[in-house]
Amino acid sequence: MVTANGDEDTDSVSHQTRDADTPDAGASIDDIGCVEILKREQNGGDLSLRFDVERTKVIWSRRSTLSKENPVQGAGNETPAAITADAGVTNTDDGDKAVDALARVIEKKDFAEMSVIGQFNLGFIIVRRGIKKTRKGSDNSDDLFIVDQHAADEKYNFETLQATTKIESQKLFRPRPLELTASDEMLAKENIDILKQNGFEIDVDPEDAISEGSRLMLTAQPVSKSTTFDMKDLEEVIHLLRDRPGGQMVRCSKARAMFAMRACRKSVMVGMPLTLSQMTSVVRHMGTMDQPWNCPHGRPTMRHLTDIRSRDSRSKEDVDWSSFQ
Asked: Boundaries of each MutL C-terminal dimerisation domain copy (predicted)?
């Protein structure tokens, strides 16, 4: 490979010609080969690189094993090795466990303090959460996370649509009486605004307004170009209201599917290059979400990569010289 001053870097060339298809099973983390520059763009500064995925898998697997066998001394108890492994990119089988692990080690305010390292493969954002102070003292971890730019932006747009969108409604030619239980009727009366946001408009029947069991009349129902709503959707909304605190927005499954499709179309896509400002905006928005860990279609928004202080911390551990006597 040719260096910046025009001289040939013989060490680098010989290192790159090593057989990449037969990774050394006993290799250490430091044995990762130098990536080879195949092409350098003259105007934008982008690089095309050759990257040995199989060799990296072997080394990453050994790193995970070493992390469990040699936990970092002095690290905070909030990010033990087991939790980090559950939240990592190697956990592809148990999404619920990954969500639980991430929720335990990341607070929403952390997203406001994370620094963006850069974009990877035009689809992911690499971020760093540095050492921070906690109520229990210092959290000595210095972590790298990988964020799926499309999934994260899609979840933000989805939650925004969920909270702010008023579904268009259509007046009924003749109001329809609602046959509800007394408890559901009271719940509907207390959440008329939420029902209206969902496209359902109700009125109290004036003829029965004085009686204790006054009936509700449906005067309008939601309408959409691509989605047909009916009474089952109203029943679902009322059912969801039973388990939510007063005033919290709920949506029926048809509305959530509609919002998920809209959010997907308006979000940044995989393959789209992002500026530092755009990447920072995606990460900061994650701190404002109710559930930032998965997109509405179930795709994970982020995973833990590594604690970049782990190797340094292990190398600085005190040596018990008496054990060699």
From this structure: 116-274
